[in-house]
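Anyone? Bumping this.
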Amino acid sequence: MIEAVNLKKEFRVNEPGEGTFGALKALFSTRKRIIRAVDGVSFAIKRGEFVGYVGENGAGKSTTIKILTGILVPSSGSARVNGIIPYEDRRRNAANIGVVFGQRTQLWWDLPVRESFEMLKAIYRIKPDDFAHMMKKLSSVLDLGPMMIIPVRKLSLGQRMKCDLAASLLHRPGVLFLDEPTIGLDVLAKENIRTFLGEINATEGTTIILTTHDMNDIERLCGRLIMLDRGRVIYDGLTNELKQRFAREKLFEVEFRVRPPSLADVPELEVVEERGSKLSLRFRDGAGGDLAAVIGKLAAKYDVKDVSVREPSVESIVRSIYEKTLSLPPYRADG
Amino acid sequence: MSPALFLKFVEVSFRKEIAYRFDYFVMILNGFIYVFVFTSLWRTVFAAGGGTFGGFTTKSIISYTVVAMVVRISFSMDDGLIPGRVRDGSVSVDLIRPVSFQLMNLAQSVGYSAFHLFARGLPIFVASAWLFGVRVPAEGLPAAIVSLVLAYLLLFLINFTTSLLAFWFVEIFPFTLLKYGLINLLAGGLLPMDFFPTSVRPLLSYLPFQHIFYSPSVILTGRVAPGNAPVILAEQAAWVAAFAVLSAVMWRAGRNKLVIQGG
């Protein structure tokens, strides 16, 4: 469905001078810096997948999306969406995809929402029956009714995002690109949009690529995760697998009635942090990850008052990958 | 792009102009002042110079001035649109649409100009024609309409080509200034080509600019013998074709250069 092979995109930027004098100097200098925003990205996405495309600012997420949507032309490598090369056959590709940019609207700023949709109906040559059907469906799920007669510029961010989502789906695209669709939204609006996206993916079979900074989006929606750092893919696999691979990130919060001098009877655990009789523990490197066994052992050997297990959030995993702190030495050799 | 969709883009752009033009009356007044200043100027100059110059009489230079200025006003275009959308990155929204970027911009331009034609050009023409006794001979009208359409396309393509420079250089104001200078001086909107020294006129005839306001205005005011109009139309069409090719080449090349500002 979507295929990227060794995609690269370089931008040439003028080295800006510092201050007024530097800016003047830069006018005459030809010093250029090449930024490689996307540096050899490859992946293949199957029909119906819901893929999270994550990375820090400047990692190359948006640039990849802009290549796949036909906005940017890659410096080298190739991409195909539904068999079409997006940057060579921009218009044909555009007819088959839906795009949402969280940071800007694709609706007509001055037109009432309904008329923006009418424009899209003409642009995508949507048949009247299909249009009526999709309009009805989208406005009931996204609750668009009250917004229809309001000019787009007067909508709140959350309302606008709902309308933008509807706009991207009116022509029933096989692929939906979402570039930070939940940015700036409040918790409730985010949740509504997540529910909606999950439904679209399930009922319409739409292939969805989502870039986001909000790891809750990923955990809720994306079976698969592609992680980008400085233009390169550093992880591509199932979201759950990532969590399992980083089981060591799982924290046991154990509260003891009597604080034991050491935890020698449970050698597979190490101490990460201690606050009085409360210890934060995790699996030692290479110690496997049998949760039930280790908790049983703890309870049998020590006078434990309370145990809770904190699952690593994808966010913390991602952060630790970026910070390259996953192999940090333990806080203390023993309890 | 289907004609219906083209018209939809025209309509949206027209309505946007209506919605934003609170300074409508100021704009009309501004147009009148221009017409008044230049007709007064020529009247004085021609009176002092003996009544004829460069093949014009006092009456015919006033007709030319009114017609050329009304065409100039009606051909108002928003040449900051594309550079603005490149500067703030919203050009990416234009590019995700399954429509031709060129035709979409042409339609938007037509909508914009249509507003200026109806809101300013026609009222100023009607009033000036009545005030100064300007007549447009009917026999030249078919050729004049073709000439106006070609002139409009030429001006649009010159603007579009200049705008595409924004794909290379984010700030293109210097180019825009140069374009304004050339068009104001050499397109015939303010003074007819006949007033240029005979030594530079052959040079000017190799440039596209006179085909923007001068050519349709001389046909409209009947200064061109009916037999000569097709030659002018052919030259106009050739320039339109040349700029269409140039803009297509630049569009292809510019796509590789585009950087989307602001993510």
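Late reply, but here is one note on the structure posted above: Chain B has eleven helices and two strands.
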